[in-house]
TrEMBL record, chains A, B:
This is Nitroreductase. Residues 13-164 form the Nitroreductase domain. It holds the Pfam family Nitroreductase. SUPFAM superfamilies: FMN-dependent nitroreductase-like. The lineage of its organism: Bacteria, Bacillati, Bacillota, Bacilli, Lactobacillales.
Amino acid sequence: MIHNKTIDSQINHRSIRAFKDQPLTKEQLETLYTVAQHTPTSMFMQNFSILHITNEAKRAKIRELCNQQYVGAEGDLFIFIADLYRNQQIRKQLGKDDGRVHMTDIFFQAMEDTILAFQNVANAVESMGLGYVPLGTINDHPLKMLEELDLPELTFPVLGMQVGIPNQEPQLKPRLPLKFTCFEEEYNKDFKVEDLADYDKIVTTYYDLRDSNRRIDSFTKQITGQKLDKAIIDRDQLPEELHQQGLCLDWK
Amino acid sequence: MIHNKTIDSQINHRSIRAFKDQPLTKEQLETLYTVAQHTPTSMFMQNFSILHITNEAKRAKIRELCNQQYVGAEGDLFIFIADLYRNQQIRKQLGKDDGRVHMTDIFFQAMEDTILAFQNVANAVESMGLGYVPLGTINDHPLKMLEELDLPELTFPVLGMQVGIPNQEPQLKPRLPLKFTCFEEEYNKDFKVEDLADYDKIVTTYYDLRDSNRRIDSFTKQITGQKLDKAIIDRDQLPEELHQQGLCLDWK
């Protein structure tokens, strides 16, 4: 195992959900934006934008939609947006048709640009001694969130990020052993759930030590549980949201 | 602007497309996998896998599909895979139905896990003095690539990565100024293509200095050009590929 400051920070990553009541400085903000700016981008199209939300009323509304008390509370809130609007505007204002901007492959490139930028910023955050939590919940109520963020067509909010000075020191969460996720030469289709027994024990111990109410949980219990169970929820609106935004129209 | 080793490496990122003829060591490989392992993951579902391709014949086949001479040439080739197969198997083998694994929101979570892991690995690569290039071209011929990689249902190859010891020193590519991509409080819908004139000049100068054949190019020229022009190409197969893999079935 090779060690350096970047890698040591990466392998010690944990989500921070409690921050000190102190916003980022202008210099920190500028640094994070500059890092985002230098993220690899598919075909040099630079298909992402970042929205920094500081208005209290707006933060409260987003917190309500995400239903997580730390969203838009202490620290800074960012929304990472897959953005084909800018490039559509360039084409439009220069007299061209929309071309392929409504196609799924182009949208996937925008998703990639956006998520790569997210992780790049995340690593910069941790390198400065700050912490963050990714907010997938910004898609729990897609259509309401779109309205709240007042985004133009051809944009799609992918992930939120709450960033700040850590006010907690959570334990490192045990991940799947590499043999289940990293394959040499061929994907191993011959997966056997019994092989997860040891890992399940490790995860159970982790929760046992972490939770004051001692919830008994394991990895396979989570995967077979509510998280993935059938349900009718607002997240089902994602395809509708994408079409409404003029994205992925080739599915029509 | 804040500086540290991680950030300095990030803001100096450039894609490397020429590598020395020396594969990664076991220690480097293990380090990169361990970094991937510790990437944030949506709902703790760990929905990604990495496939490391070393077989020459397979690398040649992938290179042909990507139509880029550096794919699977010097250095190491990885395919980053959005993977819901493992969790479906857990549910199946423990007597549960597939639940929500065929839904778009769950697939997007898997995309996120995969792309976050990609950038995390990318940053570790550069922190070790190595270089990489992201390979979006692994989706240029989606159905053929699926066959070549012999992946099970509920998986989707998102991005490839060619990694190695740099054998070139490309120039830093100028990115869109932050005012176009990073917004305070509200997304600025009032985009005007004239405002890109200065940036276009910078990009033109970059290509002018880089290319021996002195191609004249600018950002707006690229966006209004072939990259985004309407065309019938194999990338149009993406929705079909996803359905074939049992993903995003709620679009049906």
